[in-house]
Amino acid sequence: MTYTDKTCREFTDLLASRQPVPGGGSVSALVGALGAGLGNMVGHLTVGKKKYADVEDEIRECMDETDRLREELLELVQKDIDIFQPLSALYGLKAETDEEKARKDELLEDALVSACRVPLDIMKACGKAVELAGVFARKGSVMATSDAGASAILCKSAMEAASLNVYINTNSMKNREQAAAMVSECEEYMNRYCSMADEVFEYTVRKLKREE
What we know:
Elements: H1 8-15, H2 24-44, H3 56-91, H4 98-139, H5 145-170, H6 176-208
Helix pairs in contact: 2-3, 2-4, 2-5, 3-4, 4-5, 4-6, 5-6
């Protein structure tokens, strides 16, 4: 059974325990999937309504993309768990000879790259979901405006949480050039999408307060 097949209570019980997984990365992916799901709900409450007929095709396209992102993020919940376990094992691996130490370093470097790649993928998917939340907020049903804003801010939080896994793992990488490239990619997502999420949230607040 994958972790996404567990009940909400089972998942959170494991999360709150001493078990190393699930952790911050997998939770980030789950929060992102929840955010994308909220955006898609706005779409479902929009299509088929005469009031929104002129934007229906665009909304349907956004729904298709958020569905894809939601599935991707759910897969990344399990993927983050799967890549953490071998990394954790490697830290505890004994290496006495120079050959063993070199092999351990090689394996550890590969595992660290994978441990950075997954949260970067989470950030990328969440960033796209933020973009779509903006469309849902501005063009979707006014009855679900709050959900579009919640979608954006949840995906932003998921991105911020995932970024911490990038920083902690790049700190341990010996290949500093590769580490710097991954940090740069991480910060690109942060700079682009966090401010965008804030804009969607602020727009939503203004709209709910009838200031927009």
